[in-house]
């Protein structure tokens, strides 16, 4: 080559101060010229060079954001919070797809029962979906990042609430969409909402004592038994849990369970034996 980048320009290039179009010429030339690369190495601050390589390595090693994580970051969610939410098992397509399929089948069956004045099947199933989603979002058996969250400087209760809000947002959102597919029942189709909140908060409140699997399992099983007993005894068109009185009881249970959950919030950092071993 008969042309080389001037030494002053090489120094400016090393400091990041060389402006276009000379910057573009220097980039192209230095990539092909061993003499100019040697000059660049001799005038470059080794500390700054090492720092640059470290930033490059960190950028290359950083995991790529998925669709959910990217959307969360775009709407203003902090990077670390978005990563915690994206790692939630029940926010993955397999679980969400299963929920959608189950709700679709339930809506089809409910709509086929033209003689029913209350969507009993849908009202009984819908509260169980948010409860199951929260149960599968926290704990060593289902959370692939559980070991990291245990040793991370993050309040266990805060992690639980972050994921609970995310799961409830997804679960209740699907339930509401399914409710819109039952226009013939009017407001009666929303009778699942308060029981869903009551079941979810009760399961969370029992989690520090019974663990993230047993607690929601007992709560869900109790709900099913209660519905069966109410179905055998009911004489009207609406089961007791979905009457105004039943809705009031569900609201009271949800409020009491939320208060108990707040009082027990520090126990989520102590990893009780109910949570099981780390491995």
Briefly, what is this?
66% of the residues lie in helices and 0% in strands. It is an all-alpha fold.
What are the segments in which pLDDT stays under 50 over at least 5 consecutive residues?
none
Largest sheet: none
Multimer state: single chain
Number of strands: 0
The share of residues in helices is 55-70%
Distance between the termini: 62 Å
Can you give the mean pLDDT?
78
Run of helices and strands: HHHHHHHHHHHHHH
Radius of gyration: 29 Å
Structural class: mainly alpha
- Tertiary shape: elongated
Q: Provide a count of the helices.
A: 14
Strand content: under 5%
What distinguishing features does this structure have?
single chain; 279 residues; mainly alpha; 14 helices; 66% helix; elongated
What features would you describe in this structure?
The protein has helices spanning 7-15, 22-32, 34-43, 46-61, 67-74, 79-86, 93-112, 120-125, 128-135, 146-151, 156-180, 193-210, 214-233, 244-263. It is mainly alpha-helical and 279 residues long. Helix 1 packs across helix 3, helix 2 (22-32) packs across helix 3 and helix 9 runs antiparallel to helix 11. The radius of gyration is 29 Å and the shape is elongated. The protein starts with 6 loop residues before the first helix and ends in a 16-residue tail after the last helix. The model has no long low-confidence stretch (mean pLDDT 78).
